[in-house]
Known about the structure:
This protein is an alpha+beta fold. The protein has helices at residues 16-27, 49-60, 66-73, 80-83, 174-191, 206-220, 223-226, 233-258, 275-282, 298-301, 338-343; strands at 5-8, 36-41, 45-47, 88-97, 106-114, 119-127, 133-135, 141-148, 151-158, 266-269, 287-291, 307-309, 325-327. Helix 6 (206-220) crosses helix 8 (233-258) and helix 8 (233-258) packs across helix 9. It is an enzyme of class 2 (transferase).
Amino acid sequence: MSQPCEINMTGMRSADSMWSAADVWIKKPHVVNKRLCGVTETEYRDVDTAELIQVLFSLLGTNIKIADISMFLHADIVDKEHETAGRWCVGVRTIIPKVNKTVECLYKEVIIKDNVGHTVTFIPFEETGVEQVIVKSSNIYQIQLQLKPEEWMFSLHALMPEQWCSDGVAYPKLSWLCTKLLPKLSRWALESKTSEFKSTLSLIPVEKYGILYQQLKEKYKELVKVWPEVTDPEKFVFEDVAIASYLLVLWGEERAEKGTTTKQSFVDLGCGNGLLVHILNNEGHPGKGMDIRKRNIWDMYGPGTHLEETAITPSNDFLFPTTDWLIGNHSDELTPWIPVIAARYA
C-alpha cells in the first residue's frame, strides 16, 4: 500500500462534509476531470461484510485478489457493533469519456463507502463487448477522512502505486489525484455547500450525450483547420459541438416524451460565429441565427445554414410565436431579454 497523500482539514465540522465532497467526485467527476462527459450509476445498497464479498465476486469474478482488497478496505477487521446496521454501501458507476478510443469497452468502477471507517474505495474494471470483465487492480484507490489528535485529515491511498497505469482520461495519473483531486475534495468538504440545483447533464441521458458528442466532434473537426476568425478555433468549435450535442439529445428526449417525430425549430439570438446554427441546421432542425454583425465564417457554411445580420431589440418586431426554442448562447447583453421575449408568447 502507498504512503498516503494527506491534507489537514482545519475547520472541518463533521464527517458529513466528507460524504458531500466525495459525492461530487462520484456523481460529477467531469467538474474536475474535463476529459469526461460524466457518469451513470446503479442503485446503491447497504450490505454487511459477508454480503460485500459476495457482491465483489458477482461483479468482478471469483479470480480477484479478494484477500488484498479486503485488507485494503479493512474488511478483514470485523466490527460486530456495526455489521447488522450495514457497514458498507456499494454501487457501480460507468465513466463516460468525451473521446472513447475503444468503443466496445465500458469503463466502470465499484464504489464502496465504509460508513464506519469514513472511506470511499474505487475499484476500476472494464467490460468488453463479449461481457469479459477486466479488473484494473493496479488502479484501486481510496479516499479517507481520519480524526487524528485534535484535527481531521483527508488522505488518498493507492493499493499498488508502483503499478499504477494511466491513460489520462478514465485513469488519471496518481499524482493528479493527489495534487488536483484531493485539494478539490478538501475545499468542497470545508465549504460543505449543497446545491439545490440539478446539474444540466442530469436532465439528459449522459451516455447518449457522450456518444453524440464524439460523433459530432469527428464530423466537424475539420473546421478547426480552416477557421477564418481571430478567435481560438479549438475552443469555439468543440464548445459549440458540445452545446449542439446537448440540445440534440434534449430535443430527442422531448420528442419521445411528446410522441412526435417533428424536429424542434429554433432561433439563436446573438449567434456570433453561427456554428451552433450550422450544426443544428445540418442535423435537421429548422431554424436561424441572428446577429448584429456578420462573421467571416458565415460564407463557408453554405445555403443550408440560415443566418441574418440584423440588430435585435426586445420589441414586437422580434417575437417568434411559431418557434419552439429561443437560444441565447452568445447573446451577451441580450441574454436577460431572451426569457422576456419568450414569455410574451408562452
